[in-house]
Fold this sequence. Notes:
This protein has 15 helices and 14 strands. By secondary structure, it is α/β, with parallel strands linked by helices. Helix 13 runs antiparallel to helix 15. The longest helix is centred in the N-terminal third of the chain and has 16 residues. It binds 1,3-dihydroxyacetonephosphate. 1,3-dihydroxyacetonephosphate (13P) binds next to strand 3, strand 8 and strand 10.
Amino acid sequence: MPLVNMKDMLDHAWRNGYAVGGFDLVGLEFLDGIMRAAERERSPLILSLAESHFDYYDFELAMAATVAAAERASVPVAIHLDHGASLESAVRAIRHGCNGVMVDASHHPFAENVAITREVVEMAHGCGVPVEGELGYVAGVEGEDAERHPGEVVYTSPEEAEDFVARTGVDFLAVSIGTVHGRMRGTPRLDFERLAAINARVQRPLVIHGGTGLDDGQFRRLIENGVAKINYYTALADAAAARIRANQREEAGYTALLDGVREAVAEETARCMRVFGSAGRADEVLAAAEPWRPVEHVILYNVAGLDDAGVEAMMRTGREVLSGIPGVRRVITGRAVQEGARYRFAWIVEFVHPAVIDSYREHPDHVAFADTHFRPVAGDRVSIDYQAVE
Length: 390
Ligand code: 13P
């Protein structure tokens, strides 16, 4: 189960002078190609899903495949929500398996960016999930010509960066020092002095968005100055599209057009892993990082003072209310198969991380449900929170 804590992964990269790629995927070809590269290069990896791409695939289906790919990997993997639009997006992403989240409020004024990001941090840290915040503005659109979306690049100020991190508690900071999202003509000019000043003040892993189009020397200087995560998408999309164009023939069907796409994505991903210095680091990260494992919160109980319909209604309310609490993956309500069982009913509530044991217990929706609907009728009960032993 090499899903690992993303904070441990990026702290390792930051301390040891390399960066992990956050590769945005937009389908199974990308997922498979990126995973192949990580296995071949023995590299830690961040599988990234950007909310701006959710029109192109079903997020929940993609997450099921992404989690499955991460769980069967032999290299350490984290799963990240990239450019989330809201707190609700982050809650949903964590529920479906993201163990790192970014809610991008960088287009708002400083105080609003702080307030929005702070709220995300409080929620996500209650789930054990680290948070990336962005300060300054990286213009452009992933997968498109940057020149078509010039926007106004807002450079990150080192003083504000220090203040932002202190006020929000973000674990990683995305900074704007001259990169843009998308395809570029020529190589961008990066403000390394600014980056060095931010790194000196912030003292935690920095993130660069808009990795496409930078040269190897630029990547190396970014990493020397505290960048531990590099977001990368457009060049993968261009490699995939070039492959599809090369496959184009009058009679080519869907699978013929996709032939070799995964390999094209894998090659470009592997090249990045070597340039970023993450290649060959998998075992060190596996040794240093907390394995990311869910917790099963199990309650066995008997009911007094409710008929069958009352028990059904109580369970239904519980499923609805409890499954909305941040960090809850799913809620199962059960009834014993054997008539004479010591306990007649069960709850299984799956938490994404042990941190949820406390945040769930204190969450107002849980307190209200437990005090009003459950505890008054279920005095006879036992419970355990456990993690699978592998
Ligand atoms: P590029 O598409 O320019 O590589 O940027 C990707 C990115 O920053 C996603 O957040």
